[in-house]
Amino acid sequence: MYTDYYKEHKVFIESVRRFIASNIAPRITEWEKAGNFPDEVFQMLGKQGFLGILIPEEYGGIEGDYKMAGAWCEVFGELASVGLTIGVNMHSLVISSAVAKYGSKECKEKWLPPAMLGEKIGAYAFTEPGAGSDLASLRTKAVKDGDSWILNGSKTFITNGARAHFILVLARTDLSAGYKGFTTFLVDTTSPGFQVEKKLDKLGWRASDTAELSLENVRVSASCIMGKLGEGWIQASNNLNWERMMLTLTSLAGARAVFKDARKYASQRMAFGKSIDQLPAISSMLSEMYRKIVRCEAMSHAALDLICEGKPCRVEVSLAKKLVCDDAIWIADRALQIHGGYGYTTEFSPERWWRDLRLMPIGGGTSEIMANIAMKDLDII
pTM of the entire structure? Predict the structure, then answer.
């Protein structure tokens, strides 16, 4: 299983699991019912160093590698609250990592140390009301004004959007430059003109903060440009590739967790004088669930290996995301079926996993987009 794959990180895995079991898991249901988890969670994780896996030591991180980040995703993803896990991981593994890679010295020094401690929380703003996976249709604009830039536009489906202290905003800076006409800006959410329009109510990810945002004449300095002017599209593509890997590994962890629950329930639930896991229909269902998990592990880890080696892997990551996220929903659905009527209640875990995992083939690029990316790139090979 996956612990052999992460054998060099077994001590890390066990420390994460113990911390989560003691400090976070007992309160998950409370936060799910409340429809939010407190910022205190970021601070607790920050004190343990868990928010700095991919961040250089000089900014408070532990400067780990993608293999360690993958191990974190698979352990933290065991929590039956995908909204919480993605909220934390977007902040630590995607947004803070992007600032460390592309941010100016000023931005790194200002935002990364408190981000590592969970005192400042980040968000990434790609998606717009009229442009989801199609980044080329983005309408948010940034216009140069002296030494500053003025941003105008709307963003939606932004994880951590309502609670964020800083947000990476992808905007058009040159309408005539094609893919080179996009730039990413770091926006302080206390800036005049920045507004959280509303928090979105959702089917799943109940503890997650997902928001719709607006920017009206928001002024940022040139030092807030990530990387260089016109590099936003390339940065977004690179960030999305890793984000998709993170979502894939989180889905894999969720599939394992709900399978474990279903197997335990089936071994204890009695019908017709025997535990239901002895019934051919249930036994067959459980074996097929496990088969899919093993297949998902192989494909996920093959893609992660390429990321760790710094090799091109957009096809592999796209196909892994499509396979794993789609299979995870099937596994959760079968787990719910095995639980019968109890599976449809909030007393047992399958209904939550079913709702939470349902977003994974949509977020970070839909399964259909993943298939299109793979076929497009395969035509080039």
Answer: 0.95
